[in-house]
Amino acid sequence: MKPALLPGLLLAVITSGCYTNTETIVFKDEQSAQTQETTTAIKAAPKPKKLSKPDEQQVERLVFGYLLGRHFFDNGDYTGVFLQTGDDQVAAMQAQFPAHVPPIKPSYRVDMPANRTPVDKDTGKAAMVFTVETAEPNADDSVDALGRWYAGGAVTGFYTFHLTKANGDWRIEAVH
């Protein structure tokens, strides 16, 4: 071997094993302990509560009713208020507010052009859309909901609702 190659070879041998491996080595008994801790934590964590469908519908009707009682549409020449919900909920709100002006309609009867006022498919004129989002029940079994209205970028907003249930019926406790 030539003496000139020796320093290069020596340097290659020395540096070949000099790197840092950042991967954590998990020993078999540590992995078992971690899995056991995770399993225990999952079992101990409370399962999230779910709102029943009838309760969710009742909350939705209360929020829609509140929004329909406001007068967002008085100066807008809207030809319809469209509810983003199921047909049964729309029918219930139409029965509760039979002479509502503008009339209450299902959301599939509205066109929603991007960044523009919604358009009533029946009249071709401006419309307003209401939506309700209901959260999972709180620890005290109360529920928070968000009631939104939208009639284009300049006419949009929301209220937050806090509802409680007493004697089988939901009621609005606070609106912000």
Explain this structure to me?
The protein contains four helices and eight strands, in the order αααβαβββββββ. It has helices at residues 5-16, 28-44, 53-69, 87-96; strands spanning 81-83, 104-106, 110-111, 119-120, 128-134, 143-150, 156-166, 169-175. The strands form two sheets. It has a six-stranded mixed β-sheet with strand order 2-1-5-6-7-8, covered by helices on one side. A two-stranded antiparallel sheet has the order 3-4. It has a domain at 53-175. Helix 3 crosses helix 4 (87-96). Strand 5 and strand 6 form a beta hairpin. With 176 residues, it is an alpha/beta fold.
How are the secondary structure elements laid out?
Blueprint (H helix, E strand, L loop, with lengths): L4 H12 L11 H17 L8 H17 L11 E3 L3 H10 L7 E3 L3 E2 L7 E2 L7 E7 L8 E8 L5 E11 L2 E7 L1
Parallel strand pairs: 1-2, 1-5
Antiparallel strand pairs: 3-4, 5-6, 6-7, 7-8
Mean pLDDT figure: 84
Q: Helical region count? A: 4
Measured as a percent range, the helix fraction is 25-40%
What is the overall silhouette? Answer: flat
Distance between the termini: 86 Å
Number of strands: 8
SS-based class:
alpha/beta
How many strands, which pairing sense, and closed or not: the largest β-sheet? 6 strands, mixed
**From N to C, what is the helix and strand string?**
HHHEHEEEEEEE
Strand order of the largest sheet: 2-1-5-6-7-8
- Measured on Cα atoms, how large is the radius of gyration? 30 Å
